[in-house]
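Possible regression after last week's pipeline update?

I re-ran a chain I had predicted before the update to compare outputs. Posting the input and the new output here so someone can diff against the archived version. Not blocking, just want to make sure nothing changed silently.
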Amino acid sequence: MKPASILLVDDDRHLLSSMAQWLREIGYRVDTAATAPEATAAIDKRPYDLALVDVRLGDRDGFDVLSHSRAARPDTAVVMITGYGSVDSAVAAIRAGAFDFLTKPLIDDELQLAIERALNQQQLIEQNKNLVHQLEARYGLENIVGHDHRMLRLFDMISSVADTRASVLITGESGTGKSMIARAVHRRSARRGGPFVEVACGALPETLLESELFGHVAGSFTGATGDKIGKFKQADSGTIFLDEIGTASPGMQVKLLRVLQDLEFEPVGGTKTERVDTRVILATNEHLETLVQQGKFRLDLYYRINVINLEIPPLRERIADIPLLAKHFLAEVCAEANRPVDGFTEDAQAALQRYSWPGNVRELQNCVERAVLLGKGDMIGVDDLPSTLATFHAVPVDSVGARTLKQALCGPERQMILDVLEEHNWNRQETAAALGMNRTTLYKKMKKLGLMPTADQNQSQNQNQSQS
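New output (post-update):
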């Protein structure tokens, strides 16, 4: 580890020389300056970890050096030194951006301790910056891979709505990356410095979920031995992400509606009303409109949470993104496992693109990780993929028998139904009539083949039905 660099600034050249020698002896790399111009020139020339600056520098002021350092090298910690110390000058130095203020004569131990404190503080700041960069790399929008036109439109929407206060509803099948999208919204907003709190609503029974979200007071129920702060309070000034919102019970839906409207709630068993400034993002893999029609989800809550809808398309509907995602996951796994793998064979790539991916992006990520960890060669081949994918690699036309008849007919059937759906603007009644089947059969096939309409297509269908 290289020694910390220090710029020592003092117009007393004898003191400057002896202090520089002492600092070098205890392990620091030291440059010196006897005037303010020399100091500012040194700061412009190279960065320092720390600057020790005397307040009086002949006809100039050490505060000029402090100001220049804060503007040119904000990462450099500055400690001001003076033989004429006062409370007012110390306060002025700290307000101007100095890390510390010392008075002469300096005691070796006192100076060394001040230097160590300043350098430790700078190290913490640098570590925090690195953590922020790591968060951006892991959860930032740039880490979400996709060139499909629907994904590009989704990225634009994330950038547009990130800084609004409106609730966001993220919809999509399980494994499409709803949590990552929620984190990307948070990281792109002005709340990025605040907490991001995630709650899986479907993982807890109603009684525990209420306590988890709103907290409780001691004695409110059996086992409540002390007060507990809820997730909404923990997310104050940040973002709370409520996943699987479609599983919320009717009672919980009432409580959530109030929080979303007023950002107020009472802890379980408590009477004091808590108020928070929290951005709410929700997600579901269920069709909330259907749950509303069935009376399982409140209509007023649905309108409240569906202000901004970010719909993530399933992986099978953006085949062109599969090689990009596979390459991205391959690089991640190879780096973490320290396993050199160059890429995928053509057959393996074809199998990845032909498979329907019911588990979506999460399944693809697990598949790539498995192939890297269990594979033996420099390239991932079909044999390295799970058996469910191995049957989907490219085969000659005369060897269709190598697959089942069901697999062979799956692709053409899907394409035929998709063509007729698009021809009739996704009107299921007209499509079913054109295909010579009833609507129920068509709906089951659409669901099985991953042809469920997007929100835009549903809207177009409703308009067509109202016009007819």
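Follow-up from reviewer: compared with the archived run. The chain is about 50% helix and 15% strand. Marking as no regression found.
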